[in-house]
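Quick question: who can interpret this fold?

. . .
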Amino acid sequence: MSVRAMTAPGHESLYSGGMRSWLTTVDHKRIGVLYGISALFYFVVGGVEALIIRLQLASADGTVVGADTFNQLFTMHGTTMVFLVLMPLSAALFNYMIPLMIGARDVAFPRLNAFSFWTFLFGSLLLNLSFLVGNPPDAGWFGYANLTSKQYNPGMGIDFWLLSVQIMGIASIASAVNFTVTILNMRAHGMSLMRMPLFVWMALIVQVLMLLAFPPITVAFIYLMFDRFFGTHFYIPDAGGTPILWQHLFWIFGHPEVYILILPSFGVVSEVLPTFSRKPLFGAPFMIFSGILIGFLGFGVWSHHMFTTGLGAVADTAFSLATMLIAIPTGVKIFNWIATLWGGHIHFKTPLYFAVGMVGLFIIGGLSGIMHASPPVDIQQHDTYFVVAHLHYVFFGGTVFGLFAGIYYWWPKITGRMIGEGLGKLHFWLMFIGMNLTFFPMHFLGMDGMPRRIYTYAADLGWERWNLIATVGAFVIAVSVLVFFVNAVRSVRAGEPAGGDPWDGATLEWTMSSPPPEYNFAIVPVVNSARPFWLHKFGPTRDISTRTREEGTPPQPDTPPERIDLPSPSGWPILAALGLSLVGGGALVGLWLVLVGVAVLVFGVYRWAFQPLERLGHPTFGPAPGGGR
C-alpha cells in the first residue's frame, strides 16, 4: 500500500513524502498510522499462531506440532495479542484522535511520542527475532516462576521475552506520561474535564493505570533478569525465594492491564452509540465516574487470579468481595449504553454493528468473570478451558470488537475515504459468528474438565467435537479478517471521498477536513458544550434527530489566518530507541553490544535534547489579521 494512496484529494501533504519523512515524523497523526499498521500486522501474526494451535487441538492425539512448538506458539500468541496488538491498536487511536478531540495541534511532547513508537517497534522485533534463532519463549505469556528459571528453562527464549517486554514497557510508560500531560494541559478553551469526550476520559484513565501498573511488572522482570543472568534467587524456593512473589507482582500489573485493554473500547463505544442513535450519551457523568471507579478498583482484585495458591480465608474473602464490587461500575456502563440506544433514531452503519456486538459479547465475558469471583467456583474451574473462554470473551469480544468499531468510525477521518458498508457488515457477521463458534464451546470443554495449555488429549475423553467446532470458528474469524483487509485496500485505492463530517458527528475532530491538515486547527476552538459540533449545527436542543442540519461555514476555516509553528521532524528519537533496543539485545550477545547500545542511546538523547523545537524556515500559511505576517 503506498503512502500516497491513503491521501484524500487536496491533502497530499499529510501522508505524502518518502521513507525519510516517515522515519523522522513527529506528527501525532502519522505516528498513529504507524501504530495502527504495526498492530494490524501483528494481529495477522498472532492470528496465524492461534490457527496452528487450533489445528493441533482440532482432533484427539493431534500431530500438527509437537509439545515444545505448541508451548512456543502458545506463549508467543498470548504475548503478541496483549502487547503487540491490543495495546498498540489502542495507542493508534489515542495518537490520532486525542489531540483532534480536545482541540490541540499536537501532543505535549511530539518527539517523546515518536520515541515511544520506535521503542515499541524495536522491542516487538526483538521478541520475534527469537523465531529466527530457533528459540522462542515457551513458558506462557504469564511467565510463571519456576517455569522461567534458568534451572528449568536454560535456553535464550525467556531472555528474549523478558528483555523485549521490558523495552516495550518503557515505550508504554513514556507514552502514558505524554498523553497524561496532553489531556490535562492542552485542551481547547472552555473544554473542562466534564466536557471532554468519553473516549478521551477513558484514555486518561488508561494512562494513569499504565503509570501505576507497569512499575510492579518492571520490578518482577528485573528480579527475573537477575535470577537468570546473575545467579540471584528471588523466585527459587531452594535458596529462600518464592515463585508466589512473581504471581503477586505479575497480577498487580495483570489485572489493571485488563482495564488498560478494555477501557479504550469502552470509550469508543461511548462515542459511536450516541452518533448513530442521534442522542447524547445517557448519564455521561456516571459513565465518567464509573470509569474512574473501575480503574481504582482494578488495583484491588489481583489475587482473584491466585485463589488456588492458599492465601487463606481472609484474603480470599477480601478479593472475592472486591471482584464482585467492580461489576457495579461496569454494569452502570452497560445500562447507560442500552439507554442511549433506547428510543434513538438508529442509523445502522458498520461502526454501530461492532459497538453493539462488543456490548453483547462483553456481557457474556463479564458474567463468567463474576462467577470466578467466588473462590469455590474459581477453584473448580481454575486452569480449565472455561477460563480461556472467559478471557477471550473479554479481550476478543470486548476489546477487539470495540477497537474495530473505532477503526470503522474514524476510518473516513484518517484516510479521507469511506470504507465499504457491505464488506464491513460481512466482516462483522463473520467475526461475530466465528467468535462465538470458537470460544463458546470452550465453556463446555472447561466444565467437562479439559485443562488449558495442553497440546494433545486422548480420544476417549469426549472433547473432540467441541474442539473441532472451535477450530472451524477460528478459521471463520480468519476469513473475516481477510474481508477487512480487502475492504481497507479497496477503500484507500478507490473509496468515495468522505468529506469532513460523514457521520454527522458531535465532537471536534469532525469540524475539519478528512484527513486533517498538518496543523489540525487553523484557530484553536472555544468549547462551550460536551457536544460542540452538534451545538454548532443544530442549536441548543437535546433531540437532534428532529432538527435539520444547518449547512454553512464550519467552525474551522480551511487555512489559518496566521503563521503556525510546528515541531520540526527529528531522527534522534528513532536513534535513541535503537540504542535502547541494542542495550536489550546486547544482554543476549555480549557486553560490547550493551556498551554500543548505551553510547547510541546517550548520543541520540543528547542530540534530541539540543535540537530546536520548532521547524526552521516553516512557511507562513496565510496573512495575519491586519495584513501582517
Q: What stands out?
A: The chain has two domains: 55-545, 566-616. The radius of gyration is 25 Å.
